[in-house]
Amino acid sequence: MSAAWILGLTGGIGSGKSAAAAHFASLGVHVVDADHAARWVVEPGRPALQRIAEHFGPRVITAEGHLDRAALRALIFDVPDERRWLEKLLHPLIGDELVANLAQAQSPYAILVSPLLIESGQYRLTQRILLVDTPEHLQVQRTVTRDGVPEDQVHAILKAQASRADRLAHADDVLVNDRDLAWLQDEVERLHHVYLNLQPSSRGDQDRP
Q1: Burial of 150 by CB count in 10 Å (0-12 exposed, 13-18 middle, 19+ buried)?
Q2: 202 annotated ligand-binding residue
Q3: What does the entry list as the binding residues for ATP (predicted)?
Q4: At what angle are helices 69-76 and 80-102 packed, to 10 degrees?
Q5: What is the mean pLDDT of each run of 10 residues along the chain (209 residues)?
């Protein structure tokens, strides 16, 4: 089998990208989650965790030796230089993890699912991008229901993510997820059959399905 080509799958919070990714996986597609990779690179015993502890001090490490994400977020939230330091450390390591895991694909194409596909530059690892796009009021409603968080917190997260216009500008395919789960799964299956017959040599060089 020839090497799998890579589909980037993204969308804002509450868009349904995780549900779409799960259905692609159920169809036999190799799916790699960037959020999982971000956690792998800071596991105990990994060099990144030691570097973070040396830079920020022991307060960002739990008693069990794991990264205290809440403590780290509090330290970098309003300090752009510290956030850039962390990104400079982690982004190449996350990229290496993603490349290694995508290379294990046995399916004709593989999926890199990432909420920050555009912002992080991870889209450069892909040959095509699928955006799960959802009206903002539905994103807010779904996230409040799912996570039990206040609406203003969801709006703050939306502002911190790439804008809808930015995502649309990068997308080759757009799945508007404004109906129920069964409809979303039907659309995923439709796209899956299209993708099985694609062999894009570079991102965006195919017609949209």
Answers
A1: exposed
A2: no
A3: 14-19
A4: 130
A5: 87 91 98 94 93 95 93 84 91 93 96 91 94 88 85 79 84 94 96 91 48
Helix 80-102 to helix 47-56 angle (10° resolution) is 180
Alpha-helix residue ranges (DSSP H) falling in 29-150:
34-40, 47-56, 69-76, 80-102, 136-147
User: Of 25, 31, 26, nearest to 8 (Cα)?
Assistant: 31
- 138: which 2 tokens? 């539905």
Task: Tell me: is residue 159 an annotated ligand-binding position.
Answer: no
* 9 backbone dihedrals φ, ψ, rounded to 5°: -120, 120
Quick one: 21 exposed, middle or buried, by C-beta within 10 A (0-12, 13-18, 19+)?
Answer: buried
107 marked as part of a ligand binding site: no
Q: Is 19 annotated as a binding residue?
A: yes
Q: Which domains does the chain have, with CATH numbers?
A: 1-29+109-200 (3.40.50.300), 37-106 (3.40.50.300)
What amino acid is encoded at 39 in this protein? R
Question: How many Å apart are CA 11 and CA 18, to the nearest integer?
Answer: 9
16 is in an annotated binding site: yes
- Check: pTM over 0.90? Answer yes or no: no
Of 141, 137, 46, 152, nearest in space to 97 by CA: 46
